[in-house]
Amino acid sequence: MRELRVIGLEPDGSHVVCADASTGEKFRLPADDKLRAASRGDIARLGQIEIEMDSQLRPREIQARIRAGASVEQVADEAGIPLAKVERFAYPVLLERSRAAEMAQGGHPVRDNGPAVPTLAEIVTQAFRARGHNIDDATWDAWRDEDNHWVAQLQWQAGRTTNAAHWRYQPDAHGGTIVALDDTAFDLIDPDFGRPLRGLAPVASDEPEQLELAEFPTEVEVPTIEPEEIIEADVTEELSDEPAPSEEPAAPKIAPHQTNNKDKRGKPALPSWDDVLLGVRSSGR
Asked: Where is the composition biased (Low complexity) (predicted)?
């Protein structure tokens, strides 16, 4: 690389005239914005001018595409420029997206009865734990859609399948609100995420025995009945001529002129209506 020194300007001021000190050979450089930025040491402006000259995308367009969700690699491939030149303008936008994704995790999902008290991060963590997933393996991201609204994304790997859920995030003074944009996002914030699969219909029954099966024992113990002991009389026992004494005393006989005024249960019998009206006793007197 040879060293040149500036010797002047052309009469119209459009070019800078330089010369080689060893040979005296002269050169000229266009006096454009790129030369002015290089002379001031403005590297950012110089890089911006290089992108504008090397591709059809301006730095503002590059930032707009990254803010809309494009990656640095996608923009670099589309514009046909090195990654380093895109990263120079993409860095502040990537920080903005990371901050929006962090704020969206603190938002409150909107349900039928209003915003939920737990945050999006708390609800999703509980849903992941119930499904056997690890929330630490998931990644958060955010970008602006066509309506300039922030869209938060949660992406995770389940086996060989890459899953993603998307919510619309609206910031406010209370942490912001979250609205599900797809079925996966809705299922994660659904308070009834432990319900049966949608393809199965529960069988309804009005019988109380089928409603609470836990109250009935699974096995019923049947008590064993011991057979009664049968005592056989000893046929070899000698018969005595004298009658055997009775174990229970005989009940006293009732006189013929007296009647038993007790019923079958042993309680006094009540007089009939005829006895009461005519004044006749049950004994006939």
From this structure: 247-256
CA distance 47 to 30: 17
Which contiguous run of DSSP H or E holds residue 167?
Answer: strand 161-170
Any bridge partners for residue 167, and if so which? 152, 180
C-alpha–C-alpha distance, residues 208 and 206, integer Å: 6
**What distance in Å separates the CA atoms of residue 232 and residue 230, rounded to the nearest whole number?**
6
The set of residues, in sequence order, having a beta carbon less than 8 Å from that of 138 and lying 6+ positions away, is: 128, 154, 155, 156
Q: 132, 124 in Cβ contact below 8 A?
A: no
| Series of mean pLDDT values for 10-residue runs along the chain (285 residues) | 80 84 83 77 71 67 92 87 85 95 93 86 91 90 93 91 93 90 91 51 51 48 50 44 50 48 58 61 51
How many angstroms separate the CA atoms of 31 and 52, rounded?
17
What is the pTM (predicted TM-score) of this model?
0.51
Q: How far is CA 201 from CA 193, 197, 198, 214, in A?
A: 16, 8, 7, 22
Other CB atoms within 10 A of residue 158 CB: 11
Q: Which two tokens stand for residue 179?
A: 């609205």
Q: Are 170 and 177 in contact (CB under 8 A)?
A: yes
